[in-house]
DNA sequence: TGCATGACCACAAAACAAATTCAGTCATAA
DNA sequence: TTATGACTGAATTTGTTTTGTGGTCATGCA
């Protein structure tokens, strides 16, 4: 249990395990596996191989620890978006590449799925708030891109607020709500239906 | 309170109030106003100006009374659909006329809104089941119409199950989910956005 | 001397018990 | 004969005890 005092440098342990990272990793796994409420600080300490008090040298409260992890997830999403969006390409090109990358990220999806389940089943305020934050980040991104695409005359002139909301709801419907009564859809099915509704329209035009 | 003994004919009271109708009306108003759980049989009896025992001469249980009202609502929806759908007209013509009529029906919407709120807030099994029934009736209708429209080459060849699901989710998003964070949309805004996504597509085509 | 630690505490949330509500019955009265 | 509302007990709600958990801090090890 006393694995500290490796070589030290600028206050951080080198050559021995980074305790903060250990805690973050343990907490991430626990939050994704059990949700916010069912994750106890004792459990996190145990998984991280760290005394409980140690957690509180890095994080003031359970909620702050959670926020840090959540912001990590949100940052990662923003990073993905920034990496994939290239304004020399078309709106739909960018959209589908972002979608592709986003659909790959199991680890993030696991946390978010668990949190949305927790919202439905117990209504934990922290998980509710977390989902709201994630939703508003995504909506803000979509809305910004829609405005840009309208300015470029790539999209029809529409209300970006309503349209981004609908696009998001469509994504949620395809990736999680559909699964409540049916076999999950493949990545390609999801993309194909988003394309159908957004790009082409359902109607056969003359 | 003793308003019976009117003229009788084939076992029904004539010239005095129809007690069954009174009960149904009272129960309808109460279910729409307070939901399933918060509606008590004593209350229904009071509103209907009828002794509680009388209700049980017409309906075996509270649940059966509720089912009868729900099936009334569902029948009315089916009637509206049958009245508005004309297979000589296009899929979208029919869709928008049905949408128009459906959006008019305050009384049905009130019951369904109350029930879906009850599902969220308390999770009453009866209201959950009711919403499921309504959903599956609507989905079945949309799916049937989509199959027909595909056969007529009015719609692209797509999966009717997934597409009807998405259309329904879109409708719910626009008519109720949007209202949680924004001012409600007008009927025309709702129709215009459904048209945008389904008929035209968002993209500006060359 | 400094820092990780886990026993410890206060308090929030289960678990349980007591009180109340309400669906459904039935003896009564009109 | 039939509508009725007082009545019953199962199910829910409310109030109380017990348990579990977030957060602290005196201790001991390096």
UniProtKB/TrEMBL annotation, chains A, B:
GO terms for molecular function: DNA binding. Residues 40-59 bind DNA. This is TetR family transcriptional regulator. InterPro entries: DNA-bd_HTH_TetR-type_CS, Homeodomain-like_sf, HTH-type_Tx_Regulator, HTH_TetR, Tet_transcr_reg_TetR-rel_C_sf. The keyword Ribonucleoprotein does not apply. PANTHER family: ACREF/ENVCD OPERON REPRESSOR-RELATED, ACREF_ENVCD OPERON REPRESSOR-RELATED. Residues 17-77 form the HTH tetR-type domain. SUPFAM superfamilies: Homeodomain-like, Tetracyclin repressor-like, C-terminal domain. Gene3D superfamilies: Homeodomain-like, Tetracycline Repressor, domain 2. Pfam families: TetR_N. Coiled coil: none annotated. It comes from Paenibacillus dendrobii. It comes from the Bacteria.
